[in-house]
């Protein structure tokens, strides 16, 4: 897959469409600084799926769209198309049949993005799949950003591995593997959820089965109840039928009776209407009769009244006639005496005339005397009136002064009440001031306490944050440690599993060894040959060298290390016959019973530390085998030391170095690098070491997980404490606001109380001044009242004396007037007698 052509329009500095062809060989874009060479690389990275604006040397999506220049307006779209040649068939299966593939990417200024392959819409993932494994991509070694020439040489192992995998073309498969594993994990999770759902459904099914049984029982009982209801309905229906028949008969009889009753009612109604008509006519006749009766009664009453008047007049007339008769008799009797009385009356008339003259003269004198008394009375009355007027004025003045005095006294009482009220208000205001001061001090103290608590909480929050940061950092370190240990454990387990599998599959041994052991295990049966018997095991399984001596033992034993231990020689011969029959290869066999150690000269034995047998552990029962194979072998640190030891011992022993160089007792020297058949004991040692390491790593991982769990618990506890402390601080802040409000209200209450106290004290002082003024005024009015009282007493005494004088004069005048009245009465009586006498005389004369 090669690049053929790149089309750019609207991308960064490309206003017009620019096409760049890539012919075979090396291509270069040459130009001055600022002409857009780097933009070509950015366009390549962008069309290949780069999502990081930082990698494209931009901050916003609009930065990669042409934003205008001198004489050129900004564009609303950036588009880059890349044509690829599919010359090696490395394209994905969907595009493998195309000789050329065009990848296009568009970005609109509105933020919309479009991806196309061969002008067909696609996903960004499809574009990544095209370049994956080809060595070309947005983040591969094939595209080196400006200023990052040393990115490959300075890359770390992980980055170099990515580059190598990309160059090898395995990235696509790794991504597919990752995707497949992700899908497998998702499927496993879905299966777990499905199992949970199935478990839940099974649990619900059990409940539903119980409900179903109950529903079946309910249906059965409901059917039985329905049958019972049907039977009851039928019974009730029959009963109701009988009742309906009886009711129909009764209804018919009642209807007949109703018709008869209706006929009778109609007749009764007609009779009632006739009776009502006659009653109306009777009432009308009664009314007319009552009217006539009333008229006749009035006439009777009027005639009876006239009769009574006539009787009264008749009686009166009778009485008058009788009286007139009696008066006539009396007049006749009196007429006889009148004549004699006339003379006497004449004489009396003359005497009365003289008395009348005397009386008139006396009345005239008395009138003159009474006139003097009247003038004196008038004078006294005027004096009395003047005195009364003065007295009234004095009384009025006294009343005014008393009223003023009383008003002043009332005002003083009012002032006293007001003073008491002001005193109470002053005391209350003073108390309010003290209470407000106390509240202010309490609020201030509470606010100070809350602020101290907030400061303490801030310190605690800072401490908790610091402690939390340390705990999070420790947790992060512990997580990395745990992950590292898990990776080491997984690596060790993988190595151990691989080595154990190789050991189980006998990958370290020759084909003949494999054939005999597998035949012994009855794993394969390729021919009719009899499987070997008497097989004890491998020589490598019964020898355990000390650490760092595995190579020396392997060099000393050589190919013998792959020999198989058999019980005796016949067993070995049978195994050889099996190999010959099956054509499975060659193998060495060591009879355990026939193994004998070599006879060495005791005087030529090396020191014990140099003996190979002293540096190995042999499985019990196989000491003779080890002695036969290694009893003549000595160990040296270096090849020179081995040669010296070999020459000193008379060349009768085999000497081997720890590095694996060997001098045999025949004088043959073997050395160099290990061959492919070497390392069996080292691998067995590695298996044991890896097993111990896995156990240790399991313990370490468990301890690391426990430590991580404790750290996570501690972090959660610290986060909870921090959140609780922050919440507590929020509550304290709200309490502080409330305390500030209380302090403000207390200050306002204190100001108002002090202002009220000051006003009350000013009013108290003002009222006390008014009280003093009223006391002086009351005292002044009291003195004035005493003066007026003395003047009123004097005026009252003067009026009393004048009244006495008037009374005395009036008594005298009244006596004179009484005498005058008596005289006038006598005069009137005398005049009347005189006139009566004259009349009587005239009457008698007549």
Mean pLDDT: 77
Straight-line N-to-C gap: 194 Å
In helices, the fraction of residues equals 55-70%
Gyration radius from CA atoms, angstroms: 78 Å
* Tally of strands: 15
The neighbouring-strand order within the major sheet is 2-1-3-4-5-6
The coarse silhouette is: elongated
Poorly predicted segments: 600-604
Following the backbone from N to C, one meets helices and strands in this order, namely EEHEEEEHHHHEHEHEHEEHEHEEEH
Secondary structural class = alpha+beta
Largest sheet: 6 strands, antiparallel
| Proportion of residues in extended strands | 5-15%
Oligomer: single chain
Count of helix runs: 11
Description:
By secondary structure, the chain is α+β, with helices and mostly antiparallel strands. Helix content is 69%, strand content 8%. A 6-stranded antiparallel beta sheet has the order 2-1-3-4-5-6, with helices on one face. α4 crosses α11 and α7 packs antiparallel against α11. The longest helix is centred in the middle third of the chain and has 334 residues. The chain is elongated, with a radius of gyration of 78 Å. About 1% of the residues have low confidence.
